[in-house]
Amino acid sequence: MFDSSSPSRPAVQPPAPRPLGQVNWLGLWTLYLKEVRRFLNVITQTVLAPMVTALLFLAIFTLALGRGDLVVHGLPYALFLAPGLIVMTMLQNSFANTSSSVLISKVQGNIVDVLMPPLSSFEFTLAYAAAGVTRGLLVGLVTGVAMMVFVPLPLHQPIAIFWFAFNASLMLALLGLIGGIWAEKFDHIAAVTNFVVVPLSFLSGTFYSVERLPENWLFIAHLNPFFYLIDGFRYGLIGVHDGDILRGAVIVGVVNAVLWALAYGLVSRGYKLKP
Amino acid sequence: MRYRRNAPESVGGALIYSLMFLAVFTLAWPSTIELQPGVSAIGFLVPGIAAFALFHGAFENAAFSLLYDKLEGMLGDLLMAPLTPLETVVAYVTAAATGALITGSIALGVLVLLVPVPLASLFPIVGFAVLGSLLFALLGFLTGMWADKWDRYAVIDTFIVMPLGLLSGTFFTPALLPETGQILMHTNPIFYLIDGFRSGFTGAAEASPLFGFLLSSTLVFGLGLLAWRLFARGWRIQS
């Protein structure tokens, strides 16, 4: 006969939903970490290669422009060019990080692994953007240090350096996120990279002072957010600037706020992410 | 065939880069600088830009083609077809070179429309373009055979091909380099390639185009032989 007072084994509790609170910190951190590890895994390609390319550009431009006689704003050309190249590298790599991640997940079909967990759209956007910023900043740092070997870069205004580097990485990380969500094939991202990101990063005063442009082009240059990023970052390093730094700082902040709203909106709607 | 499918992407990309380089150089320059005695800055630059687009394109086409086939497992289909190794190698390499030549011509055409480019003699232009694209296509083919992951290809591209393409006198003459740099340049076969190619435009050359032609032809022949023998052995393709 069964003795009902002592059960033969303890009763199993049914699984209870884990309380998450306002923000799913663990989930957010996990997604962020996954994204960061994704690019650290292939660090040669994602961080070192861009650094080498930037150094190559530095070499050819300084060599090509005649024994470094060229002077811009009273400073040797190499000193003017280096910050521009650092920003350009940051821009291209933050964009690549988020866009490739989202698009590859979509194409391979494992985007569902990221959409299913209990992550809010805010956490989703934040994790991807933060990883993109991390990549951008890391690439910028590595490239900057490498360049210091060849060009004595001063640190004129560290706050400016940080603000513009952060915003540059954030802007392109968000653009990459939006692009990755929108794209359906790798060609789309390649098109955006080649026809939007590259021209904008080349032509926004990276290699030359925009003061050299004729009147109409100068106006267009001032409409380009990349210009403010590059100008501000360069100011932070060498103290030389073509535009108004404070205005630039505000503009890039505003642009990023708008981009964030757009990215967040797309993620919450599940635009092209959820059928 | 594969080239035509990817054409907009590869042509577009190469074109944008070429245009960007041109724009940036023209804007960054004070107009008085002469890179080579007796040669205008544009005349010096445009061939260099076109050459870089050409060579990098050839490398990319060949490496990507082969590596993609290898990693996607489609190489088996290819190896089973009744093609001798020589025919296969020649096909891959010449296809890649042709694709690059088309891209390079388009890029050059656009550049010529935008800026005045001198033209001295057609033979060096065509000769070195063909040799150069074959050379880089062979390098690409060898890389495609050697690489077992995309990372390896990226490493070769970034650390070997791009420096070779950008630093071998594409954008500046060795005269601007210090003594040791100049000596190194003169041992670099790519330098002769670029110099010869450019001489077809500007009529001026740092080194002897004939020597460059012979050197490049020998290299193409040598690498071609290597590629053929390795492929026939199934080096890193068949286990």
Percentage of residues assigned to helices of chain B: over 70%
Beta content of chain B? under 5%
State the helix count of chain A. Answer: 10
Number of domains of chain A: 1
Biggest interface, chains and residues, is: A-B, 32 and 30 residues
> How much helix, percentage-wise, in residues of chain A?
over 70%
Count of discrete domains of chain B: 1
Strand order of the largest sheet of chain A: 1-2
Seen as an oligomer or otherwise, the chain set is heterodimer
Structural class of chain B: mainly alpha
Order of helices and strands of chain B: HHHHHHHHH
Would you give an account of this structure?
The complex is a heterodimer of chains A (275) and B (239). Chain A contains 10 helices and 2 strands. Chain A is mostly helical and 275 residues long. Chain A has one domain. Chain A has a two-stranded antiparallel sheet with strand order 1-2. Chain B is an all-alpha fold and 239 residues long. Chain B has one domain. In chain B, helix 8 crosses helix 9. Chains A and B meet through helix 2 and helix 7 of A and helix 1 and helix 6 of B.
Summarize this structure as a short list of keywords or feature phrases:
heterodimer; A: 275 residues; mainly alpha; two-stranded antiparallel ribbon; 10 helices; B: mainly alpha; 9 helices; globular; disordered N terminus
Summarize it:
The complex is a heterodimer of chains A (275) and B (239). By secondary structure, chain A is mainly alpha-helical.
Architecture blueprint of SSEs:
The complex is a heterodimer of chains A (275) and B (239).
Chain A: H1 25-41, H2 43-64, E1 71-72, E2 75-76, H3 77-108, H4 112-115, H5 121-148, H6 158-182, H7 186-202, H8 215-223, H9 225-238, H10 245-269
Antiparallel strand pairs in A: 1-2
Chain B: H1 2-28, H2 41-71, H3 75-80, H4 85-114, H5 122-146, H6 150-167, H7 179-186, H8 189-202, H9 209-233
Helix pairs in contact in B: 1-2, 1-4, 2-4, 2-5, 2-6, 2-8, 4-5, 4-9, 5-8, 5-9, 8-9
